[in-house]
Amino acid sequence: YIEWKDSGGGRAGFFGNNSSGNDDLYWKNEQGGNIGIETTGSGEFQIFSNLQMGNDKLIAVDVNSNITASTTRTQGQGALTAQVNEISTVANNDDTVTLPSAITGIEIEIINNGAKTLQIFPASGDNLGLGTDTAEELEANERVKFVAYDTDNWAKESTTEIIHAEIHDEDNTDPFVINAEDDFHSYHTNGLAAGDLADWAFDAGGAGTSHAIDSIDDGVDTGNDIEVTTGTDHLLAIGDIVSQTNLADTNYVGVFVVKAIISSTQYEVAAPFNLTGTGTMDQAATLEADAVAAGVYDFAYYISGKPVGANETFDFQLYKEATAITGSKVRRKFGGAGDFGSMAGGGVVAVGTGDKISFALSNEDSAANLIVRNLTIVLIRL
What we know:
Shape: elongated
Number of strands: 32
Oligomer: single chain
Helix content: under 10%
CATH topology of the largest domain: Jelly Rolls
């Protein structure tokens, strides 16, 4: 090693290795007690003091370009090895790349210059934010940067991709069944479909089929839940959004989150039990935010339709889980039967991971149906 001394003859520092048993390389300020640079035998290069570049000097990072995403769409395929990775070919939706194993502090940037949506897997045992070993997606002509904040987990540091969701139904001619005046009915049709989705998932809900409620009993959580029995298989899962309408007990009426599945014809929601009852259940079509989609959203919906009856007044509203979104309600009174009208609503809503957004409507004048001809709902994260 090479050492240098101060004016008094003491060692001020050294460059090299003055230890036996390893092959580390040091530059060390002895008097300050600070290691400036250490290169370890494991291949790591560590800087323990501030690094300042000279004027007009840049640090070049490792870049791989012209990468073709793997058509074998499983974890481990299309392994990325550089800090910046330009994917030039994505021949099919969900063609795949896989990040290296997480090392605390490293950053990996991915540029999708391909024609299709790219599927991005973490290394085995790692988490990109959606769950261990779960893939993220990146649309064409977008880029994303991940940073590892420990040896297992990555955070999405930045992206050009605007997280958004859209559902729509066009040229529908099927009446949406209203079975009670003044009750909000969760909306679903057999034509409602997902539009462009980024970090959201679509569920068609009842897809045009309502279910008769045959009876209501006290639930497992006595006095706090009700057990609802339907006349046909309800096809529900825990967390689904439903409306219950045309029930004599007003505690049973409204929009609910399914808490438990008892059988194929029985489910539970939160409501105080009083007496049994009969009515109708509608499972809402929903948009669900994934683990990286949480945030504040601009929402808008556009609807046109015509009533089956004459001089009918309808309210329209969005729900987050079982709660109406403040500011989303609009009202429209139609004239004669078959009178077409258009409505729109919009605002801002905070959305958390796993939250479900749905649409509901009520007839304020009667139980007459409404044909929703066209419907579009859009969410864009701000």
